[in-house]
Amino acid sequence: MAESGSPVRLTGWGRTAATRATLIPVSGEDDVRAVLDGRSARGVVARGLARSYGDAAQNAGGDVLDMTGADRVLDVDLATGEVEVEAGISLDRLMTLFVPLGLFVPVTAGTRYVTVGGAIAADIHGKNHHRAGSFAQHVAWLDLLLADGTIRRVGPDQDADLFWATAGGMGLTGVILRARVRMKPIESAQLLVDTDRTPDLDSLLSLLTGTDHLYDYSVAWIDCVARGRRMGRSVLTRGRFARRDELPARRRVDPLRYSSAVTVSVPDVFPPGLLNRATVAAFNELWYRRAPRQERDRLQSIPRFFHPLDGVGDWNRVYGPRGFVQYQFTVPFGQEEAMRAALERISDSGSASFLAVLKRFGDGNPGMLSYPSPGWTLALDVPVVAGLAGLLDGLDRLVVDAGGRIYLAKDSRVRPDLFERMYPRLEAFRTVRTQVDPRGVFTSDLARRLSL
Amino acid sequence: MIDALGSVGSLLLVGGTSDIAVATAHRYLAERPLRVVVAARDTPRRGEVAADLTAAGADVQVVDFDADDPESPARMVAEAAAGGDIDVAVVAFGQLGDADRLRTDSEAVAQIGHVNYVAPAVVGTELANRMREQGHGVIVALSSVAGERVRASNFVYGSTKAGMDAFYSGLADSLAGTGVSVLVVRPGFVKSKMTAHLPDVPLSTTPEAVADAIVTGVRRGGTRCGCPAPCAGS
Ligand SMILES: Cc1cc2nc3c(=O)[nH]c(=O)nc-3n(C[C@H](O)[C@H](O)[C@H](O)COP(=O)(O)OP(=O)(O)OC[C@H]3O[C@@H](n4cnc5c(N)ncnc54)[C@H](O)[C@@H]3O)c2cc1C
To answer: Dihedral through CA A414, CA A418, CA A421, CA A424, nearest 10?
Structure first.
């Protein structure tokens, strides 16, 4: 039965702002209904693999549903490439099961340890956004358990408003139980990758603008420590899945062979002081130098190309006990100066950040709180240090004035009043949410923090 | 909710007209707009504080609080929480008393014991209950160095602060693992309206410096902070 929950302190991936809730494992709709029946006055929210950085999957004083036990595959149609799965299944598991059958997930985050429910609730984007859009665009339908215990099947062409409030809706419309996902056919488990080093931001942006459409996947790593002339120097990697006949002979025998990398853990005792401007600068220098100036058609495995960080388990611990935040924002095309200014402020602040990632987005979708919109997106990890709140509040203002926005799945600190200005469809979202959940049963720390 | 970087969405000031409480609200308001609940007796000063904080960008709610009334703490906390979660509560009321009179007047002793120890302990208990239910929150208790080493010159006052300090330190331990934390702040001699009639003392501090220490302490997320650094000098 579902009331076997236990009180725990929960955080997101950034390990900040812990709050206490009752975590209840659920394996299906009956369990979820039981929680709704006996729920606390503080409401309920679903939680997947907790890879969102902030407080989206937390609910202080209330109930949190651990969805990861609901992870079955319910139906597979190899002809159309559609799979029907429970929402707690991870993209990792989907890859293990389906890559050997010639099907890849339509969109993957920089980690494969996210659930399908989390992927829809944050409407995640990948390196193929400019081509394929975000995750929800590959969902034929999903079953949503509402506050009153009923289940509604919604999709882009059935109950579209509720579907587009749920895609990107951060778990606040109900619990996603199942979804039918259109997978991407592949002939091999290898990618053909082109790498280019660019000496500064301008050269990166113009290379992306001119040639991004030629690649299925593309992303740039930016050296955030480099300043002056070299500001924005980057390593750009772009690629596509190889066809079977493009593989070397020995790989053609078993082209869809897939294994995820072995993981090693960063010890808990990793000294937080180790990450400073000097060590990050050294790391970045090495990373930049190590990358080939220009390389074409290099074969890379799926984990290597998509999820290099998954090779290091628990790397979020390197930032030490105070945790870290990720700042991810987008600005529209034509607002490159705002992005440059943001990058300058970050590198001038001396906040040690490696793993700054830049990508060019394609069109957005009708998701009311979906993050991607045409323009540039930059994401960077920053350890929590004194003065960071002021720096990031300043960046928010810059971003909002440029017509841009921040990403809720990464957020743990945006100003509520500025957030409202970033998402013009917030009111539409609130209207749908009030219709399906008039008493606000589904809520989270994120929802409280931002008065969503 | 207190966010990842220690910014605060709502602030309850118990003894909301105290200089330290008001300075703390201003310190937060300098960063962002937020909800501030001013809990105090219905005096003209309360109205001024509310107007002042509103002008500084706060969404102000005023609730009655009277340390002499045993029913008041529970009612005050419930009213403050009706408008949403309480992220940070600053317990900032207290009396210095007249040291000479307190040496001989047992009624005055009972009275200051109530205002400085009993009432804060009752408020702390009500706040802790509420925040335990919330699953998060920080209680900031304004103690004093006078309670750390009780001096003969004002030992009655010191003893009430010692009791109050011990209560909140114990409360901090009892709340481990609940998502709620307690910050005990022990400023030195603070130049404020409470001490305006006393002669200047070397090493005194200001309400603004104490407010800074509070904001930093909440941001650091620790359970206790001794005499905050800025209180020692300046
Ligand atoms: C290393 C790393 C790299 C990342 N890279 C990317 C990236 O490239 N692109 C990108 O878009 N994101 C990226 N992310 C963010 C991540 O993809 C999202 O936060 C995603 O939502 C995490 O899924 P999860 O299962 O861990 O969900 P959680 O973090 O557990 O929850 C996220 C949200 O989904 C809701 N939710 C979860 N399950 C359900 C359900 N069954 N029903 C209803 N609501 C539900 C929760 O309530 C919460 O609001 C990255 C994160 C990390 C740690």
So the answer is: 20
Is A136 touching ligand 1 by the criterion CB < 6 Å?
A: no
Q: Report whether residue A52 contacts ligand 1, using a CB cutoff of 6 Å.
A: yes
- Would you give the DSSP letter of residue B155? H
Instruction: With a cut of 70, say whether residue B9 has pLDDT above it.
Output: yes
To test the contact with chain B by mutation, choose from A420, A444, A448, A451 the residue with the greatest count of B C-beta atoms within 10 A, namely A448
A115 lines ligand 1 (CB under 6 A): yes
Q: What is the mean pLDDT of residues A51-56?
A: 97
Q: DSSP label at B205? A: B
Locate tokens 């979020």: which residue?
A316
The answer to whether B139 touches B131, Cβ cutoff 8 Å, is yes
CA distance A64 to B26: 35
Q: Which atom of ligand 1 is nearest to the CA of A122?
A: 21
| A133 ligand 1 Cβ < 6 A | no
Q: B174-218: per-residue pLDDT in tens? A: 999 999 999 999 988 777 777 777 766 655 789 999 999 999 999
User: Which of B 97-136 lie inside 8 A of A, CB atoms?
Assistant: 132-136
List the beta strands (DSSP E) in A223-267. Answer: 234-241, 264-265
Q: Is the pLDDT of residue A270 over 80?
A: no
Q: What are phi and psi of B170, to 5 degrees?
A: -65, -40
Residue A85's closest CA among A67, A112, A100, A108? Answer: A67
Query: Which amino acid is residue A325, in one-letter code?
Result: V
Q: Which tokens sit at B111?
A: 């009275």
From A36, A107, A115, the mutation candidate for ligand 1 (largest count of ligand atoms within 8 A of CB) is: A115
Give the amino acid at A56: A
What pLDDT does residue B148 have? 85
Q: Let me know if B28 is a catalytic residue.
A: no
Residue A132: alpha-carbon gap to chain centroid = 15
Chain A residues in contact with B31 by the CB 8 A cut-off are 389-390, 393
Chain-centre distance of CA A357, in angstroms? Answer: 12
Question: Helix, strand or coil for residue B184?
Answer: strand
Beta strand extents in A11-96 (DSSP E only) = 19-25, 44-47, 63-66, 73-77, 82-86
DSSP state for residue B199 in the 8-state scheme: P
**What is the SS3 string spanning B65-130?**
CCCCCCCHHHHHHHHHHHCCCCCEEEECCCCCCCHHHHCCCHHHHHHHHHHHHHHHHHHHHHHHHH
ipTM of the complex: 0.89
B28, B117, B157, B168: the active-site residue: B157
CB contact under 8 A, A20 and B135: yes
CA separation for the pair B128, A20 (Å, rounded): 14
On chain B, the residues whose CB falls within 8 A of the CB of A44 are none
Proportion of chain A in helix, strand, coil states, percent, rounded to 5? 35, 25, 40
First to last CA, chain B: 33
Cβ atoms of A110 and A306 within 8 Å: the answer is yes
